[in-house]
Amino acid sequence: MRRVLNRVLLALVGLLMLVGGSAAAARSRGGFHGRLGDALGTAHKPLITPSQTERLTEHGWWWWVAFGLPGVVLAVCVGWFLAQSRRRLVKALRVADAVTVDGHALAHAVEDDVRRIPDVISAQARLVRRRHGPQLKLAVRAEAGAHPYAVLRAVRDEAVEHGRTSVGLERLPVDVEFRTVRGLPRRHLH
Amino acid sequence: MSAPDAPFSAAIGLADTPVDTHADTHADALAAVPFPGYRKPRRAWSPRGFTAAMTASAVGLAAGTVVFVGVSARLERTPGWADATLDWLQTHAWAEDPVWIAGFAVAVAGLWLIAVALTPGRRHLLPLEPVGTAMSAYMTRRTAAQLLRHTALSSTGVLDARVRVTRRRALLHVDYHFRDADELYDELDAALEERMDTLLPSRPLRVDVYLRPA
Hints:
The complex is a heterodimer of chains A (190) and B (214). Chain A is α+β, with helices and mostly antiparallel strands.
């Protein structure tokens, strides 16, 4: 949801900037002719005319539009900014009627299991909320030369499966980012 | 290949590709895995959190400044810098260079934001074939480069290898000695193709090898 919201708002801001910037540049270079040119004025007019300045000091409806709209934009931007810092971690997972499991504890348990897999050096797990339930985000760092399939298979069959069954989840989608450490594999070092 | 009922081994084309003992085991394992819910992996899409935060800050700051100036003007306590800005705007014409330069810069920034909004991002991640249902796996391009480099270095006569992996191809510059170039090329080509299969990329990368005698 946040991803979609961010992209829609970014596209909207980008479009407004593109249109506004292009229009300003075109007017500056005398790009508007005919009726459009008459309506927007020539390139030799000042950026703000005295009549426009006078309108800024009027206290009628125009003032509310000129400064109310930026107020709305400001409120939207504050909400948008705060939405980025909100972490979507699962704090507690209901296992039975009166039993909940700490989301961090489950993530740490999976991390520990992943670290026990041969060739794995470190692992970081986070349990995040998704529309269809919790999802495990896993970053795995393995030895140089490790076999990706072997590691991923063990992650799925051992660590994630263990974590999933331990809390009784029907399904625990997992998103794995696999990387290796720099350097040569062990066999090259002997 | 991407038919929902196709076995996973067929989907990734590994079952017929014996590589080494280690990989054979995996190919067998893959062949044994029926994978009814197989879906072609997609690229990782970035949430664009940082860009969104920066854009929200910039636009919010601009809007906040306008609101501040408007309210202070209403209270007849306009700050000096706001008056100076208004004077500047009244005394400079649209035709001046700073205006069209600023307009052009804003338009370019807008175009960039649209591109950021429409493209997936996370170019450093290569999507991998999932090992099972409910699993998405990615590998960094650097990791793929390292794994290919290790494969190249394990060939006799190879002194060093520099690897660059893009989203579509892997480019290896190999320094070698005491080997016939054609023979080494064939050996590397076969080894790297096999290694590439075991990396499970959702879209197999084209491997280009350039040999340079030391």
